[in-house]
Design brief:
598 residues, alpha/beta, six-stranded mixed sheet, two-stranded antiparallel ribbon, globular
Length: 598
């Protein structure tokens, strides 16, 4: 067993702190998680991130991998309470159990099998041990009560249930390690490398708390003081590490990266910009593992010269790019960009212009890399003649992207970003790194996405789905109705999409349905039909009382509405299922013209 390396505490120090290999920590004795600690609650993403980091460290042959701090309170000789660090200790012990099982299945009786068992169970160096006898061994760690039985079954190689965080962690570990049946020779070598690294190079910082000190107060200080690092902080530190000997360039990089924080002080927005910008450079980077994947992507393209990292830092912090991202994520697009783009693309009089595209796509963050990539082509073009040509292509591309997204959102029960996220990000990289915009390829890409989704770029299919459809969710309803309203009356841009409200002509509240006799007992089936929906502007008078009691009461209010599609309702004498059906059919045909792919 590897010896424990300790830093002696000064005589006046009450707490004892030292660094130690994880293997030595396991072999200190027995550990219990006190009753007041939370249960094991790492989900699959936490476990997967740790395993991926270990795999990366092993691949790079790092001298050590630091796993953070563990807080221990002695309870008896060689017995400890774990007040902080149980998630990591239990996860690593499960990894060791998985490795131990594979050593026993592939080559029983090996030294690594015995070493792994001694890390998991309270066993002496002199004992002859094997997985076959694990039922008789005492685990080194006792998790919280609700996890104890399941944990003991897992580390002894028994079958387990299908629910719970421990089960999820075990399945992730099993998937990471693979099976004996799949390439036993190659896998055995990999398992040995993993175990040797965990045994010899995995390190933690231990903090021992004596009985006269409240461990909860220490825990609070460690976990609640200071600022948590976000992805920008971590990526910035990674970039800084390439300039340790170049103070001047390091300061220049620092000043550049600080621009991101200045423009986007909210960590979530700063990370959103970085992810969008780097996906245009490297392709898809997962949101839950963004920092790790971004770091790997940068390393994979690094030639070893600091110039590469320096140029990357300058590139991703360009003021023009920061302003562009702010525009495409803002509730109201920049008037300056909109005016300049309309002039360059000759779309000043178009029924649908760039501000319509940006407003409609605003709620769908999955589209940000694509919008950023195509608009960057326009903004980066310095030749004014070419710029006009690029602007026209960008307008067409954004029009088609908006059509695909909005048509999908209108017919799908829920727009699922995960269905398109990876493809959108990789296409953004293709566009951003190409010399010109290939509009035909982009159109074929969107058609391919559509074939995998609902096939709604076919006008006939889209119209039929809208004719039969219902719609919920006010933001989506507003976009649909505003688009239809604007198509009928282009000057209706005066309608404030944010302040207007969705109106159900046949009211939603069931207590009113008895007076809408044309619907009988089926009124609830018609409430959310698209033909039953309209808009009310803030200026429209919507009185209370008997307003919802009949269509006759409502139509007098609709007569004075500033919204064209609402004002048109006053010409009807009654409101029936047939009226909803016919109105919805007309709206479906208009929608196909508004969100056209041509």
């Amino acid at each position: 067993m590897i010896g424990i390396a300790r830093v002696s505490s000064p005589p006046s120090t009450t707490l004892l702190a030292y660094a130690t290999p994880f293997a030595d920590l396991f072999c200190k004795g027995q550990f219990t998680v006190p009753w007041h600690q939370r249960y094991y609650d790492w989900d699959a993403s936490h476990v997967r991130a740790l395993l991926n980091d270990l795999d990366e460290a092993i691949g790079e042959d790092r001298p050590c991998y630091f796993l953070g701090s563990i807080m221990l309170v002695p309870t008896a000789t060689a017995c400890w309470e774990v007040n902080d660090g149980q998630q990591r200790m239990i996860t690593i012990s499960l990894l060791c159990a998985g490795l131990c099982k594979r050593f026993a299945d592939g080559h029983p009786g090996t030294q690594r099998e015995a070493q792994a068992l001694r890390m998991i169970f309270d066993l002496s160096e002199r004992q002859v041990v094997s997985v076959a006898d694990a039922e008789n061994y005492t685990p080194r760690i006792t998790p919280p009560e609700n996890n104890q039985m399941q944990y003991k079954q897992m580390i002894r190689g028994h079958s387990i249930g299908t629910n719970g965080k421990l089960t999820t962690a075990w399945k992730v570990i099993e998937g990471f390690l693979g099976s004996v049946q799949n390439g036993p020779v190659q896998n055995t070598e990999r398992w040995e490398h993993i175990f040797d690294f965990v045994r010899d190079r995995l390190e933690v910082a231990c903090l021992e708390i004596p009985h006269n000190i409240d461990p909860n107060a220490i825990y609070e200080t460690i976990n609640s003081r200071g600022k948590q690092l976000d992805d920008l902080d971590r990526l910035r530190n990674f970039i800084y590490s390439h300039f340790n000997a170049e103070t001047q360039r390091k300061k220049s990089v620092h000043d550049s990266l600080e621009r991101i924080r200045t423009i986007f002080p909210a960590p979530q927005k700063a990370t959103g910009y970085l992810r969008c910008r780097l996906q245009c450079h490297y392709g898809f980077l997962g949101a839950s593992s963004f920092y790790r994947e971004a770091r790997l992507a940068i390393r994979s393209q690094w030639s070893g010269q600091t110039d590469d990292i320096f140029n990357l830092a300058q590139d991703i912090t360009a003021q023009q790019d920061l302003e562009l991202y702010r525009t495409i994520t803002a509730a109201n697009p920049s008037p300056t960009l909109v005016r300049a783009f309309k002039t360059a693309s000759h779309t000043s009089t178009a029924a649908r212009s760039i501000e319509h595209f940006l407003v409609e796509l605003n709620a769908y963050s999955v589209t940000q890399p694509l919008i950023f990539a195509v608009l960057s082509k326009y903004l980066r073009e310095s030749d004014e003649h070419k710029k006009r040509h690029v602007a026209q292509k960008v307008h067409k591309g954004l029009h088609r992207l908006t059509t695909f997204v909005m048509r999908t959102a209108f017919v799908a029960p829920k727009f699922e970003p995960s269905h398109f996220e990876k493809d959108f990000a990789n296409m953004a990289r293709t566009i951003a790194t190409a010399s010109t915009i290939d509009l035909d390829s982009f159109s074929e890409f969107l058609k391919g996405c559509d074939r995998e989704a609902y096939g709604i770029l076919n006008d006939k299919r889209f119209i039929e789905l809208i004719k039969q459809g219902s719609m919920t969710g006010n933001p989506k309803i507003k976009k649909f109705l505003l688009g239809v309203n604007r198509h009928q009356r282009p000057e209706s841009d005066i309608v404030d999409g944010v302040k207007c409200s969705v109106e159900h002509i046949l009211p939603k509240a069931g207590q009113h349905h008895q007076t809408w006799q044309a619907f009988g007992g089926d009124a609830a089936d018609w409430v959310h039909r698209i033909g039953n929906l309209t808009l009310m502007s803030p200026a429209d008078n919507k009185p209370g009382g008997k307003y919802n009691s009949s269509f006759a009461m409502k139509k007098e209010i609709y007569r004075e509405s500033s919204v064209a599609i609402t004002r048109q309702l006053h010409k009807f004498n009654d409101w029936t299922p047939e009226r909803i059906t016919s109105r919805q059919a007309r709206m479906a045909k208009i929608a196909a013209q508004v969100w056209t792919f041509e």
